[in-house]
Amino acid sequence: MTNAPQSPVDWGEVPPPTDPAAPRRRVSAWTVLRAVVCAFGLFSLAFWGYWSWILPWPGYLFAVGAPLFAAVVWFLFRSPRSPIETDVVGKVVVETALVIAAGAAWLSIGRPVVGLVFVLVAALSGVVAFRRETA
């Protein structure tokens, strides 16, 4: 049918429809480790906020506020869809600061071994992620 009705808006090239039977992108073990590290980092900040304060209301405030602040900073400067363009050095600085903050949270609670293991695993997953991004 050559004379089918056309839209008055020029859409340009229309991408071909996706095949539902096509294989999905595979999720690697490094991607899963990266997600676990991010989730544990947010949990670490929430746990620190809850246990570091004697009165209950500052504890609740920091238990919600610290991971929320870290998530917003990560979204603004580090995420793949961040609205602020950041170069590689800026991304490394932001991620290093967030990992050190979560590790220091465990240190201030009195669990330095957990903080050290977290920092080492996060550093390993961060190096692998940056190598994949820049390759």
From TrEMBL:
Region (Disordered): 1-22
Bilayer-crossing regions: 32-51, 57-76, 88-107, 113-130
Keywords: Membrane, Transmembrane, Transmembrane helix
Any matching Pfam family: DUF2568
InterPro entries, per the entry: DUF2568
Name the record gives this protein: YrdB family protein
